[in-house]
């Protein structure tokens, strides 16, 4: 069995947590619609140092039926580290070499510029409980800046809204509500973008901030045309536990099988091709 086959679904599952947060960030990055309205503002606090998160990510149009992935984890913005436990549905789990038609939980850790993945059904094939992928030097050197930027944004939702408005998204107030057991103030963001090929990507989302302007919840729904038809993505990310201690543990080297980054990069290029070129 080739390395590409063995790592394909490992890579997809391990990136699910990143997608959950990244899709929420797309609320502002794809903004290209016109018009905006004034939104409620708060006094921003300092960049956050730690946070707990949970997410729900659903993708339609890529497989015969929608696929939903859920997960939770912790982030240490001071030490540029994160850990996630991602539950993938049976439809994906059965495609993992050695997998069965039952949901499976994949654990992922990012620390020191290396990503570690634990996929139970792969253990007998890989020979160790975990695999590791060392990021390229350029990506590793960019991690501190990336963590710092995200920490600043999570502690200043007004910055998200200001960015969206400057990029011509429509921003409207949703008032106040109890979100994930927190009294929060919400804002809706709507945008659309037409690609050079004439296809249009539409996006609607919302961000909810606590009284200190820290992000409590982000929701987003994106739809667009890909090579094989219409693709839709919906995601919800909840954040809590700001500033509380977190424990992110790297697996011992005796339990880890290193996998070359180049092999994983080729897997992602092939897997994401239809979405990128749609």
Description:
By secondary structure, this protein is α+β, with helices and mostly antiparallel strands. It has one domain (3-276): outer membrane lipoprotein receptor (LolB), chain A, CATH 2.50.20.20. The protein is 28% helix and 38% strand. Strands 7-8-9-10-11-1-2-3-4-5-6-12 form a 12-stranded mixed β-sheet. A hairpin with a 5-residue loop joins strand 8 and strand 9 (200-209). Helix 1 crosses helix 7 (261-276). The longest helix has 18 residues, at 137-154.
Please give a quick description of this structure.
With 278 residues, the protein is of the alpha+beta class.
Query: What is the top-level CATH class?
Result: Mainly Beta
Uncertain residue ranges: 1-44, 270-278
User: Structurally, how many domains make up the residues?
Assistant: 1
Number of helices: 7
